[in-house]
User: Fold this.
Amino acid sequence: MTASTSTPEQLRINSLEQEVHYLKEQLAWFQRQVFGQKSEKVIEQSSQLYLDGLGELSQETSEEKQKIAGHARTKQRKGQDKISFPEDLPVESQVIDLPETEKICTVTNQALVKIGEEITRKIVYKPGSYYLKKIVRLKYALPQGEGIRTAPLPETLLNRCQADESLLADIIVKKFADHLPLCRQSEILARQGIGISRQIMSEWVMRCGKALKPLFDEMTKHVLQSGNVFADETPIDMLAPGNGKTEQGYMWVLVGGQASNPPYRVYNFRNGREHSHAADLLKGYTGVLHSDKYGAYEALANKKQFVWCPCWAHIRRKFIEAESGDPPLRKEVLELIKDLFLLEEVAWSHLPEERLLIRQEKQVPIIDRLIELIKGRLIQGDVLPKSKFKEALGYFCSLIPHLKNYTQHPFARLDNNVAERAVRPLAIGRKNWLFVGSEIGGEAAATLLSLVQSCRALNINPWEYLVDVMRRMMSHPANKLFELLPDQWAKEKNII
Assistant:
């Protein structure tokens, strides 16, 4: 029966069947989120992997690449599970000897002879230590009663603050790297006899964020000058003034820097997710931008402000979730996307010029094949309008003008996982400290998060970095602030 001859009752039945199908699909998705495996690994093996001309890969190498290429990873131990400790760690010896009665042989009645020792080592924890630094400045009276002369206090990040930079850095790192809210830190200190209220700590954190803002601005400038930026955003609650309730704000993150693995994570707090915020953060930027398909980025890309590289991991996820649409097509699409990720890992093991060649010769044909398959399926019809399969097809087709952009720029990437990983600490942190106290507090948190998380991305101890930078900040030349950014600081210290 055709649509033109369908009765109103038949049309109603068809509509209800589509709705039931859609709801079953939604229910299956929710069940997987709660009870099922969330891995996006595609188990089936590709036949050729499009690697002709790149050299043969052993079976072992191929398997390793598949694990790296956005799928499940097997933990490689190789000794990293060993416990290590510094060579100068203090040692306290406990000697356990035999009782004197057991030092005599019961057969010969002769004394036993000591031939060596059996040594077992255990790491013992002692509570962290704190001490008062007593600064004594001698006072001298001028002759004729003209006054008193005293040496000035050493420069400090926060004037009239009873906390040394080392304590300030410890509080910041525990909050923005270890996700410890200030109330818990106050309780921890109280157990060691040190009384510092959460309110005082909060004031210190706000002042540190404001004092370090020039470093944040310098980092932002270098991210936007890098020409290769990854963007994402995530909700974060803000305490509403007056009523004690919270309202939703957003923390936007830009990842960039002059390196194949961008070193800087710049967080920006905004009181919403409007398109105007994205336009403000990316004002003047004309390089390559990686992101998901949020409309703010897509609108700027359509205005040709920058080269937009949409995330292929998001495309893959749409087809992973579309289980009941067209299983053969879905399987082929996922296999082709898996090949793209595998080839991308191979491409990144080559020089930039060779990387572009691999992408143009090997990956572009795969993308063309995907476009042909998915467009053809939409033209064929018979797709339920309300289904995850139709959503996946539409999502892909809307991105077709931008899908190959990453193949034309050597430092562009196939996905936006760098920014996704930068957002992850916020997802953990907000479950602990719950909200920011105000818009000013959100801006201070963004500054400190940017410095701490950039250090973590570079494998720098953020506490050591902050202590040194906060002590040098006030006397450092303003036109050389770049020297205090985490990667430059690490080079100065010969850490990287």
